[in-house]
Specification:
With about 475 residues, the chain is an alpha+beta fold. It contains six helices and 22 strands. It starts with a helix and ends with a strand. The protein binds heme C. Heme C binds next to helix 2 and helix 4.
Length: about 475
């Protein structure tokens, strides 16, 4: 019954016209640009366009980087450092092994662009002729898209003390959405971002009574849309979080988890261990989906925000705002962000290369869209492998030097079709030795936990489920 309805929905989706593109978010970060001969490059003629394309997204006033790289005066004094970070590929930040997979949001520079920038910086970073400068690149405000959002929800301000380790806060926000919608693009911003460790947004499961409740006022432009059944998604088996534990170890893991289950894992998608609706993670920004795809919101949708703050010495207040852009049509392919995870591991003190793995079997065929590894400070490397039903193994993503400060979502350049029964496996290594400069304490046994000095192993993945195929 459920399957039949879903099948009909999918048939309708595949024949429906796609939504409309948002105004281009920005020049795509395509590769292969700037293949000009390395010398005699000058800022205005050769380098400024490259920085507009590859750096200014973050290095501008209001961007996520601590300084701007816009004027020649901004870059001149930094030239040696720019040469170094570009040559070492620390900037632009991109942590995937470039020989595996192709990603739509790949920020890495091709070899020719690296050579051009390095040669210019080492050659004294000459300015060149201002007459030949490209037009200044502009950035929409207050959001990354020029089009106004269709729905904006904000959490009440939360007080953050100057010091201490904070538990996650959970805040419920009603959307007042009158008709079901597909989210086509989203952006999450927080005030006082330096106090925000992360924000995950969960879509609450509809409860009897609430969904039937009052159709609240939506934006006036919205025309009522037919009610859509919630897209099918596989059920979550919490026991999978224990994978890897030997039977005799189960009690000690359960014992450790008790408080977390009562307090955190009952919220949203097991507190984030099973996925999320949308996220505001370090290194993230606005997210856009393909024009005919989106995250489904039922009428009367309610969000739970999971807010994690990091005190930095001065007490403050922060609120988070989620802006959503909807697909024009009522139908789109529904995207689901889920996770492969385990909480059953203990990393011994000093272990330099402790392996933890987890896997899940896809209960139906799925079309894969993105991958997002998540670990904490001891995270060293992370690999996703698909084991196809015929036994063939394929590496989807390899992050050789994981960096907690950059929680990239790696969006596949092309969707990848995975058959029913495919096993998605993640293999991670943790460095709990003193040689890991990020390690807060190599003398501790490190367990799964919500705080940064504890560890996590989560492989988020985003798919379109294809039940019945
Ligand atoms: C996605 C955002 C982003 C992009 C794109 C980006 N940067 Fe950065 N950059 C940052 C952030 C955040 C920092 C500060 C934190 C850090 O060093 O990781 C930074 C730091 C730097 C630093 C200082 C490094 C240090 O060791 O202190 C330099 C130099 C730099 N960036 C140059 C560049 C150049 C050149 C480009 C383009 C080729 C670029 N960045 C692209 C976000 C970005």
């Amino acid at each position: 019954m459920q399957r039949l309805r879903t099948r009909q929905l999918f048939l309708a989706l595949f024949t429906a016209a796609g939504g409309h593109d948002l105004p281009a978010q920005e020049t795509p970060l395509e590769q292969g640009a700037g293949k000009k001969p390395p010398a005699p490059a000058t800022w205005h003629e050769s380098i400024e366009p490259l920085f507009q394309r590859h750096c200014q997204e973050c290095h501008r006033p209001g961007g996520s980087a601590p300084f701007a790289l816009i004027e020649h005066a901004d870059v001149e004094g930094l030239a040696p450092m720019i040469a170094e970070v570009v040559a070492q590929r620390r900037m632009p930040p991109w942590h995937a092994d470039r020989t595996i997979g192709r990603f739509a949001n790949d920020r890495s520079l091709d070899a020719a662009t690296v050579a051009t920038i390095v040669a210019w910086a080492k050659g004294g970073a000459p300015a060149g002729d201002p007459q030949r400068a490209p037009p200044r690149r502009s950035w929409p405000e207050p959001w990354s898209f020029a089009a106004p959002p269709d729905l904006v929800v904000t959490t009440p301000p939360q007080a953050i003390p100057a010091e201490g380790t904070l538990l996650y806060q959970y805040v419920h926000v009603e959307t007042g959405l009158a008709a079901p919608r597909f989210v086509r693009a989203a952006e999450l911003r927080s005030t006082r971002p330096e106090l925000v460790h992360h924000v995950l947004v969960f879509l609450d499961e509809p409860r009897a009574g609430r969904d039937a409740a009052k159709p609240a006022a939506e934006s006036p432009a919205a025309t009522p849309l037919p009610t859509l059944a919630r897209p099918w998604r596989p059920a979550f088996n919490q026991l999978e979080l224990m994978q890897g534990a030997k039977p005799e170890e189960m009690p000690r893991y359960f014992e450790r988890l008790q408080a977390m289950i009562r307090r955190d894992l009952r919220h949203g998608e097991a507190g984030g261990l099973n996925g999320y609706f949308l996220s505001g993670l370090a290194g993230g920004g606005a997210v856009t989906f393909a024009p005919d795809e989106g995250k489904f919101m039922p009428a009367g949708a309610r969000f739970t925000f999971q807010l994690h703050y990091q005190p930095n010495g001065t007490a403050g207040e922060s609120s988070s705002t989620l802006a959503l852009w909807f697909a024009d049509g009522p139908r789109a392919r529904p995207l689901d962000t889920r996770a492969v995870a385990t909480v059953a591991f203990a990393i011994p003190p000093g272990a330099a290369n402790h392996e933890v793995t987890a896997e899940c079997r896809l209960p139906v065929a799925a079309s894969l869209r993105s991958l997002q590894p998540h670990m904490h400070l001891r995270g060293k490397d992370f690999t996703y492998i698909a084991r196809h039903p015929d036994g063939r193994e394929e590496t989807l993503l390899h992050v050789p030097a994981y960096d907690f400060d950059w929680q990239h979502e790696y969006r596949l350049a092309e969707p990848m079709e995975l058959a029913e029964g495919t096993v998605l496996r993640v293999v991670a290594h943790f460095d709990n030795s003193a040689a890991n400069p990020a390690n807060p304490d190599p003398s501790q046994t490190v367990w799964f936990g919500l705080q940064t000095m504890e560890e996590m192993l989560i492989g988020y993945f985003e798919v379109v489920w294809k039940p019945g195929e």
